[in-house]
Amino acid sequence: MSDKRFEITVLDHLCKGCGLCVAFCEQGKLYIRAKPNRRGVQTVAVRAEADCTGCLQCATICPDGAVQVTRIEVWSTPPGSSAKGRSAGVEEPAGT
Ligand code: SF4
Ligand code: SF4
Questions:
Q1: Domain boundaries, position 7
Q2: C-beta 25 within 6 A of ligand 1
Q3: pLDDT tens track for 52-78
Q4: Predicted model pTM
């Protein structure tokens, strides 16, 4: 048995703050920051408390490839064991 979860990463240096990903996320997982970054862009941030279904709408719609969706699979383990695994899921971050 495994429990699938999704982690969203927004690459701040690629985000131009167009808001497309925010508009397409039905879970309200993404929002535009109130404060601009060093480039003067109000980039996207991720709400930790909101659920992500892994639908990939945000990553698909972003014209700049600034959103990464990573599937994290946590396997059930026998009592006393703490093994955790990452599957070859939707997208694995570079270097893992
Ligand atoms: S769609 Fe891409 S560029 Fe536009 S706000 Fe979202 S992450 Fe930034
Ligand atoms: S994968 Fe889907 S649910 Fe998750 S943040 Fe992107 S649009 Fe929202």
A1: 2-75
A2: no
A3: 999 999 999 999 999 999 999 888 776
A4: 0.79
